[in-house]
Every structure is written in structure tokens, then in C-alpha cells.
Please model this.
Amino acid sequence: MVLIYVLTGLAGLIAGGVINVLADDLPHYRRPHAPRYPDGTVRPITAWLGVSAFLLGQRVSPSGDKLSWRYPFTELSTILFMWIGLAAKGDLTAIEPLQVFFWMFYVVILILITVIDIEHRLILFAVIIPSTLIAVADSIMTVPSPGSNPNLESALYGGALGFGIFFMLYLGGILYLYVVNTLQGRNIQEVAFGYGDVMLAALSGLILGWQSLVVAMFITVFLGALGAVIWLGSRRIMGHSASKFAALPYGPYIVAGTYLLLFFSEQVRMTLYGW
Model:
């Protein structure tokens, strides 16, 4: 078991470095390339990982641009959430190695989506589409088990359910802005739910299956409301104005609900329903 965690930690560190590269390049529609400093200077190999760049004193480029704390934080978070997921699943010797691989892949994708959405308010098709294909492959290639991984039928129903519900919310947001802009003479462009959120909800359904997705959506809505209240409260405490029309990244809440149901489905159901 110790060896599994060590290997997962190393894989998580490397995966976190890849996440950082993709988060730098994909939102700008660039092909991923060697890690760079903010000024575009290629980092030395010993600084390709954020953790090593900080530990070896290579955080700053020759021109003086610094790497943000996002780089080591993302890498360490990837390791941490992989370890938490493995610990939540208990005895790994009784689980297919291929299934464990899929779970760890989902962790990487969910963190990548979160980083990009927080920084750019984007959920990219370049991330979602390949991930949906992997999720479908998971439902076909691994043995289904309740609360862990769905069969193909449940995954497809989940994908359709997630897409349908969030697409309706997306259309509702567009309608709401149209009414507000028309009646109040505003020119608000951003909607609460973007189309990327719709596609992310569909991916969540494919990963979880429709039954777990229903619970995940309740968690997502609760966390989203809580996050909005905390954001508005913090703005008021700091003396800043807060528009009720401000569009906040919603992807991280969908990610949180997906992660919790992926690795803690039994605990969540016990908490909510007592079974």
C-alpha cells in the first residue's frame, strides 16, 4: 500500500506540472509547449515543476518575472486529492488497476478545469470532449459497481440528465438577462451558467451515472449558493461594492460535487439519507 501511495504521489506531481502547462496554454488557444515564465522565457528543466522552481530558487526569470504560487499549489493539490481519493476507496487490492487509473485521470481533469475556470472563466471543449470519451470508455471497460462507477447505460443517462438540466438553466439565464437588459436598459453580457458549465455537467453525469449525479447536483447548488453568499459578504466586509449581476465561476462547484460523489458516495448518502 505504501508503494502505491508513493507512486501515486510521483504521478500526481508530474500530472500537476502538466496541468500547469495546459492551464497556461489552452485558454489562449496555443499548443502546449515547454514550461515558461510569465514573460515567455523557457524555464530550465530543473524549474519545469513549480515545486522544484520554488525549492531551487528558480522562481524568477532573467527579466525578473515571477512564477505565481499557483504552480506549486496545483502540483501539491493534485497529489493531495489523489491520495484522498485512494484513501476513500479503502482496500485497493480489491479494485481493478484500470479503474484506479480512470479515477486518477478524473482527478487531474477536474483540477485542470478548476484552475482554468477560476483564472479565465472558461471551460474548454478541448478539455471536455476528450474527457467525455474517456468516461464512456471507463463505463465500458471496467466492472460496474454501485456508488463507484456506472455501467454504460447509467453513464449515458447521467450525461443526458446533466446536459439537459444545465442547458435549461443556461437558457433561463439568457432569458433573465434579456428581460433585465430590456426593462432596465442594461447591457449585461455574462450569464450565471455558461455553455461550458452545461458540458461539464454532462461530463459529471458520464463519470458518476445518473443516480449519483442527482445527489451531486444538489451538492453543487448548495455549494454554489454558499460560495455566492461568502463572496458577497467578503466584498461588503472589505468595503467593496458587489453587483448582484456579477458572474462567478460555477465550474468549481460542479467539480466539487463530482469529486465528492466519485470518492465519497457512500458517506454522502449516509449523511443525506441515512442509508
Remarks:
- The mean pLDDT is 88.
- The two ends are 29 Å apart (CA to CA).
- The chain has ten helices and no strands.
